[in-house]
Design a protein that fits this description.
Largest sheet: 5 strands, mixed
Shape: elongated
Number of helices: 23
Number of domains: 2
Strand content: 5-15%
Distance between the termini: 19 Å
Order of helices and strands: HHHHHHHHHHHHHHHHHHHHEHEHEEEEEH
Strand order of the largest sheet: 2-1-3-7-6
Structural class: alpha/beta
Number of strands: 7
Helix content: 55-70%
Length: about 525
């Protein structure tokens, strides 16, 4: 759904030196920087370089989370006096080859990259607690700063992890170690504040949302009160993505942040989407988390302080994030993050099994389950948002758009990113359009599909189509989302493009759209 979003953001950085859409910037900086290198050295066209750079980064970076996880497993096995690959390879497979991390590839690239920093944070914290020095303290602080520039959800999870870690380490460590922990915590808070200041410039809404999550925990745990019938059985629609603020128009992120990227969308095959996938991941996360906590308490006198603190923090993180204690949408997203603390807790559990045969047997079962889930997910394939025929028809619309930089095209989630990438216009979902948009832009178009939205290829190779999701104001479906007075300028085999010259009666204002988005969040 969000794959082309990364293309659009990288091109905005290369063309304008700034993100086109408020967001945490680090992932897009990496994409744009790599694309610039590819465009300069081989001499590729910029758009081709962007596509290559985004795909390359999405293939190479997320699996790096396996490295710090494997290092922790090797460290725990050395401490237990049982050198083995079980506690090293099995957790590494969980974080890079199971269904949950694979489901994020191409759709949640920021989340995937942030999981690398989260795993590195646990590794750096363990090294610091084992032998504190300035370099190891700086590594912990650097990981927190990277998280603050990458993904707000994983940053929140990391702060919970580090908070538990600091409490446990302070309570159990020697007095000299407590001073080190408190000192690093203070420096980390300062680094996080600096990262938040940088992030606020790009995406104030996410900084405010993270602050609210800690200031008002009920906002995270509780369900948002929605009239279910107004949105259909699947609940409220996704948050609206924005168009780029045109030159000479109000573009203050503080006033237009309601046009930010989608608030959240669980990928297919991710934990919690349907059937057994709602239950089995939660059982796994709770089992690993509670099992690690119990084992830590039983063997607390034999464990080093660093092992004790990191294992407890990872176990708590796995149980809380993956236990399904939140509403359905939050649980889906948090379970994707819970993979890293669960892998750390599983590594600790495997390292503590004393006999070789039970350790290998348990490790083999977990490894097979993890890899099988990833293989089944990969076999299903991802969601196909547009076909080649749809892409070609989108390209054919370019002559109809006289001034893309002053044009807004309204399309459903997923299609809107490909519209921006292909036609270089400003884009928005129907729920994000306000009366003021007719003053900001010279032309406003509505783009609708005739054949539904392709999700994935079926077992026989055929395309499976489903109707586009309901969009627009509550109760408005695809059949009447386009205003009645729209002028059809393109009626092709796959798409209809209609121009709307004036804001329809009852179109919400900026303030009303912003209020609706905040309510959904």
């Amino acid at each position: 759904m969000n794959g082309a979003y990364y293309f659009v953001q990288a091109r905005a950085l290369l063309d304008n030196g700034r993100l086109g859409i408020p967001d945490l910037p680090l992932t897009f900086w990496l994409h744009a920087g790599l694309a610039r290198v590819v465009a300069t050295l081989p001499g590729w066209p910029q758009d081709d370089a962007i596509v290559f750079a985004v795909k390359l980064a999405d293939s190479v970076l997320p699996p790096l989370a396996a490295l710090p996880i494997a290092w922790l497993g090797a460290s725990w096995q050395r401490e237990a006096g049982r050198p083995s690959l079980v506690a090293t390879l099995v957790p590494a497979a969980l974080v890079c080859a199971s269904a949950a991390p694979l489901s994020m590839v191409g759709d949640f690239q920021k989340n995937s990259l942030a999981l690398v920093w989260l795993a590195a944070t646990a590794w750096a914290a363990h090294r610091f607690l084992a032998a504190p020095n300035l370099a190891r303290a700086a590594a912990v602080v650097a990981c927190v700063a990277l998280l603050g520039l990458t993904h707000v959800g994983v940053l929140g999870a990391a702060l919970v992890f580090l908070g538990v870690l600091a409490v446990v380490a302070t309570a159990t460590a020697a007095p000299e170690m407590r001073k080190h922990v408190l000192r690093v915590a203070l420096i980390g808070c300062l680094a996080l504040g600096a990262a938040a200041a940088v992030t606020y410039r790009y995406d104030p809404a996410r900084v405010q949302r993270l602050w609210r999550a800690f200031a008002e925990p009920s906002s995270v745990v509780g369900n948002v009160d929605h009239p279910r019938g107004a949105f259909g059985p699947s609940g409220p629609p996704m948050g609206p993505p924005p168009g780029f603020a045109p030159d000479g128009s109000p573009s203050d992120p503080a006033t237009l942040y309601h046009r930010g990227p989608p608030a959240g969308f669980g990928p297919p095959g991710a934990p919690g989407n349907r059937g057994a996938m709602r239950v089995l991941p939660r059982v796994f996360f709770l089992g690993v988390g509670l099992g690690a906590i119990a084992l830590v308490l039983v063997r607390r006198r034999r464990l080093l302080a660093a092992d004790f603190a990191v294992a407890i923090a990872a176990a708590v993180g796995a149980a809380v994030l993956g236990g399904g204690f939140f509403d359905e949408q939050k649980s889906q997203r948090l379970m994707l993050i819970a993979v890293v603390p669960a892998a750390i807790a599983a590594s600790f559990l495997l390292a503590q099994i004393r006999r070789t045969f039970p350790r290998v047997l348990v490790g083999a079962v977990v490894f097979i389950c993890a890899v099988t889930s990833g293989a089944l997910y990969a076999a299903r394939g991802g969601r196909q948002i547009i076909t080649l025929a749809q892409r070609d028809e989108l390209r054919s619309l370019a002559p109809l758009i006289a001034s893309p930089e002053r044009t807004l095209i309204v399309a459903h989630h997923g299609l809107e990113w490909w519209t921006a990438w292909t036609l270089r216009t400003h884009i928005a979902q129907p729920t994000a359009v306000s009366r003021e948009d007719w003053q900001r832009y010279e032309h406003v178009y509505y783009l609708t599909e005739k054949s539904g939205m392709p999700r994935r290829r079926g077992g026989g190779g055929e395309d499976r189509f489903v109707a586009p999701p309901p969009f627009g104001p509550p109760g408005m479906g695809p059949e009447n989302a386009v205003p009645d007075d729209a002028v059809v300028v393109h009626d092709g085999p796959l798409y209809t493009l209609a121009r709307v010259d004036e804001a329809p009666d009852g179109q919400p204002s900026d303030a009303e759209v912003q209020a609706q988005r905040l309510k959904r969040q």
